[in-house]
Amino acid sequence: MKSSVIATCSLLFLLLISSCEKDSPAAVSNPTVAISAAKDSVPAGNTLLFTAVPSVKVDSIFWKLDGIATEETGWVAGDSDTAIVFSTIGTATVHVKVVLNSKTATASFPVRVLANPLSLSLTGTGKAVVQNGTLNFTATAGGFPDSLLWKIGGTATDLTGWVRGDSDTTLAFSSVGVSPVFVKAVKGEVVKTTFLNVTCYPKAGTKVRYVGSRSSYYGFDPFPKPEAIASVYQKMAAKIPGSIPSAVWIVGGIKGSACDLEFPRPGTTTYPNITFQNQDKHEAYLDEFDKIGAKVFLQVEAGMADMKTLMKLVIGQYRHHQCIAGFGIDVEWYPSPLDKNGDSVGTMDEWKVVSNVKAAITQAEIAELDAYVKTFDPFYRIFLKHWEPNMCGSKSYGDAVYLNSSQRFKSIDQMIGSPSQSWTTAGWANAFKPGECGYQIGYEDDAVWWKLLKDPLVDITKKLDTSFPNQINHIYWVDFTMYDPMLTEYWK
To answer: What is the pTM of this model?
Structure first.
């Protein structure tokens, strides 16, 4: 009897164990995964479709290109099928990882990325257009493609929206904002794609083109993260219908009589009155501005450095960014250490060096610098910044932008002033009409009146816009007060 009870209990215990093993996650075997593709080579700029085949149903699938499969970084969640674009000639490796409970398995697939037999470049008659307007584009293709495809907006990897066209095409723009124009050359299974960003401005209403802030190493405290400031610029521009997120982005500040560029020295060449930092401070920010379609003027405080050399170094460092609109010259610090107010910021020895500093930048110098910046991109523009029109040539030149940095007004009406008052915004606008003008606003010395406004950014912008209705305006809040409680909504 006793042995029978023991046997029955043993049987029940074994059944219980068997049941637990069926339901327990620990009893699940380790997953495995295989990866496949139609081929193991691809021309640069082309896409391959990869398929992951897990041995069992898994919780999630992750993909990454290059790196090491055992590293935790770089993985992107995806489906069992994923398309990957290969841009760099050489050998690339596609990794896939599957996860089931806490267990993982990986597989890798090497790909040879070959030189693309096609070449393709794209030019247009402009980078900006009024809403419902048109621009002409020319695609120059090498390698004898079978066809050219065009589209506005979306991404290059989207399969939808492409329209067959000729090497010359005219496109109409209906949506306000920044849109990429894509052209794709196709030869068999080989493709080559390139694009240009085009800014579409509203047909009527506000004349404000760019809205954002000034940015410098000594203005923001603390300096914001790239994603944060990009979001701020989007929210600021959204307050001014039809405007584009923008920034006056200082990449080199005055350091004694030198300009200290905030990126590493390219190569080993030394440059008079130019110093460099060990790390690049701005690349991540410009990446974010590219994503949101912002337009950025890169500015320097030149010191005694040669301006063309600064242009060459700065634009050479950042010209691959679509967000770059041009190059900014702060005339107050060009040249320095003697600013155009007559205040020395250097030593007595430096005073002797700059004893022949001229009183203002001339029209001939503006023309020379404007022509030089356009050698890098014909659509790049320069801006000249000061508070007195006579320091910036006294009249407009070409498509240059004239940025006003006046402050210490007692009211918004005094800020506007009259055309006969050169130090006011009206005097500034009158001097440079019909050229585009910009205004740095939000200075601490003006807070006595702008803090009384319901919405300082919107109210000041509207005042400037209505006061100068026949000119395009750019609005930049200064970084010194960007964290003021009156602007809290933009940081949320």
So the answer is: 0.67
